[in-house]
């Protein structure tokens, strides 16, 4: 029975939900967040934000290497290289700012 399998999976995941099996559907009862659970969730949020920033840095570094390779192979000029790197850094700054803003907004939502 798929309902029982889903119920078992939710229980195994230890998500903190109370499960009420209604036969044809499951009712999940989510208790209000405690201060401790809010702090844990904020910590997870910070970890996710840092992972996002690290991923963006990795992508930026990879693209920067490609740009440098193009310049080394004389496919673009040195001026073009610096312009591309400057554009890349600006784009990275914008995305980092967006991640920061979203993180701050989400943290405020969690604190409510």
From TrEMBL:
Source taxon at top rank: Bacteria
The family this protein is said to belong to: Belongs to the RRF family.
InterPro entries: Ribosome_recyc_fac, Ribosome_recyc_fac_dom, RRF_sf
Name of the protein described by the UniProt record: Ribosome recycling factor
Pfam family, one: RRF
Keywords of this entry: Coiled coil, Protein biosynthesis
PANTHER family for the chain: MITOCHONDRIAL RIBOSOME RECYCLING FACTOR PSEUDO 1 (PTHR20982:SF3), RIBOSOME RECYCLING FACTOR (PTHR20982)
Organism encoding this protein: Candidatus Kuenenbacteria bacterium CG22_combo_CG10-13_8_21_14_all_39_9
Domain Ribosome recycling factor residue range list: 2-110
Gene Ontology MF annotations: ribosomal large subunit binding
Keyword Acetylation attributed: no
């Amino acid at each position: 029975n798929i309902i029982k399998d889903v119920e078992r999976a939710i229980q195994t995941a230890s998500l903190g939900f109370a499960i009420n099996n209604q036969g044809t559907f499951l009712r999940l009862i989510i208790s209000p967040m405690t201060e401790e659970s809010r702090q844990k969730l904020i910590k997870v949020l910070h970890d996710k934000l840092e992972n996002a920033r690290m991923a963006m840095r990795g992508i930026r570094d990879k693209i920067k290497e490609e740009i440098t390779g193009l310049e080394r192979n004389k496919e673009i000029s040195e001026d073009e290289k610096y312009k591309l790197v400057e554009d890349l850094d600006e784009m990275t700054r914008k995305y980092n700012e967006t991640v920061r803003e979203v993180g701050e907004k989400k943290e405020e939502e969690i604190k409510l």
